[in-house]
Specification:
Two copies of one chain form a homodimer.
Chain A (H helix, E strand, L loop, with lengths): L1 E4 L7 H11 L1 H4 L5 E4 L6 H9 L2 E4 L10 E4 L6 H9 L3 E4 L3 H15 L3 E5 L5 H9 L4 E4 L13 E6 L5 H15 L5 E7 L3 H16 L2 E5 L5 H11 L5 E4 L15 E6 L5 H13 L3
Parallel strand pairs in A: 1-12, 2-3, 2-4, 4-5, 6-7, 6-8, 8-9, 10-11, 10-12
Helix pairs in contact in A: 5-6, 8-9
């Protein structure tokens, strides 16, 4: 059986960078207690690996004692949370994705220059919550065009998107905003395309592979939104699709009489899990 | 016969302001020669009136001698032309429309901050030529969506419109620009709605009036684009429409058996011509 592994499978640039930083902590600060402020990554196996190295995942800054080290995840935090960590004397390793950091800088600049800020994305997502904090009260989240009617437009509007926003959806919302506001008066609308193309590229490549194989395996956490999304997209074009977290879930019967297997993985799936699964499949000798 | 005169008929804010400034010149500088650098206004009667006051219309700065006064029209001029006037020791009365001046300031700011600038409008129009000068080599004119394919996009793009651009057309071009560029990469598009709503309001009101009258008169220069546009728009919904420049052109037969007359005028039509025509029609006693 031939195996095709998606080039875009697994850790995106931001997650890879974050994990590299995190794994250096125990070596760098051998005597410090290390906390992860919320989950750094939506992959149970990788989180377990982190925990085995002494990293404790907590949800609230109150759970961290002064002098300890806190890991700030890829999605970033608000300026208030940064302030609270500093006040408590907690040193934090900031793994915020540079693409998210760029959005923080953009909205800080917009807020300082009195723009109304519209953040297009999921208001319950950690990334969006962090961005909103950096808007300093001048931000509003918009998750769909239906929410545009509530905008009371000033003369200067700035628009940014969550890094994982769908490009077509972002464009549609921008068009609806322009259409609603431009007729009324002279004004400025400043739009930033802040969408990271890793998710888009991964979905596109995975679907292309799913079309030309007999069976498809998606690797990643069942709590990872982008992994589940990959699985659902493949299901539309390929009936033999399996979502697994570990090599232990593999069943030989999936591959009987199959000629080509396709493999892809979510942005939070570590390479060691992908490699582990690939070698387990090769051992089956099909 | 009842007469309805459009509220938005005649001089727009910018033209009115310019003419107020111009008619004060002979009083303020009684000993100076006064030139109009290109036509200040597209109305032959008003230009003739200006000429009778000693204002000479010229097309080239070389035709003006040092020490004279030059009127800069509502459409504005380029920084190079300003410089040339200053170098020759010519004092210029700048009647550039404040809405156009605002665009000059916007593109100057964009050019200083290394934005690529797209000017949406008619590249042969004086206003657009002036704006392009203020872009200091960083501007490009776009008159229709078909020209978008030639844009080589950098990371920062600023977009402005000619003040008389049609709002729907401007939106369509913006959407096409976003659609072409956003898919490619992270970038910023900064859009300014610089359209002046006087033209839009005048057209809307004129068409509303044309629908409910028996006969319609449009007053203005046959060389005035916005006046001719009003005439053509009315022709679509009303067969009895007449475009005239002066009271001398009125024909009694137009009004026989008519109950309501509608009157509108272009942005460059002075009040005295409108009043003259209205009183001539009233004298007909129809």
């Amino acid at each position: 059986m031939k195996i095709i592994i998606a080039k875009e499978a697994g850790f995106c640039f931001g997650v890879k960078r974050a994990m590299d930083m995190i794994y250096k902590i125990p070596e760098k600060y051998p005597d410090k207690k290390v906390y992860s402020f919320r989950e750094v990554i939506h992959n149970p196996q990788e989180v377990k690996r982190l925990e085995s190295l002494g990293v404790r995942v907590i949800q609230n800054i109150r759970q961290i004692e002064g002098g300890a080290i806190a890991i700030v995840g890829t999605h970033g935090i608000t300026p208030l949370e940064q302030e609270n960590l500093k006040k408590k004397g907690i040193y934090f390793v900031d793994t915020t994705c540079p693409y998210v950091k760029k959005i923080h800088n953009i909205v800080e600049h917009l807020a300082q220059n009195n723009y109304q800020i519209l953040v297009i994305g999921d208001k319950y997502h950690l990334e969006v919550k962090g961005i909103m904090g950096h808007c300093h009260g001048k931000g509003k989240t918009i998750s769909s065009s239906s929410e545009i009617k509530n905008i009371k437009a000033g003369p200067k509007i700035g628009i940014v998107a969550q890094t994982t926003q769908n490009t077509n959806e972002y464009e549609k919302i921008i068009f609806d905003i322009i259409n609603k506001l431009f007729k009324t008066k002279q004004m400025e609308i400043r739009i930033f395309n802040t969408i990271c193309d890793a998710t888009y590229k991964r979905q596109k490549e995975t679907m292309r592979i799913a079309q030309k194989v007999d069976v498809m395996i998606i690797i990643g956490g069942r709590n990872s939104a982008n992994t589940v999304r990959l699985y659902k997209l493949c299901k539309k074009i390929q009936k033999n699709v399996y979502l697994i977290e570990t090599a232990g879930e593999i069943k030989k019967e999936w591959f009987i009489n199959k000629k080509i297997l396709g493999i892809s993985a979510g942005a939070s799936t570590p390479d060691w899990i992908i490699k582990d699964i690939v070698s387990k499949i090769k051992e089956l000798n099909i």
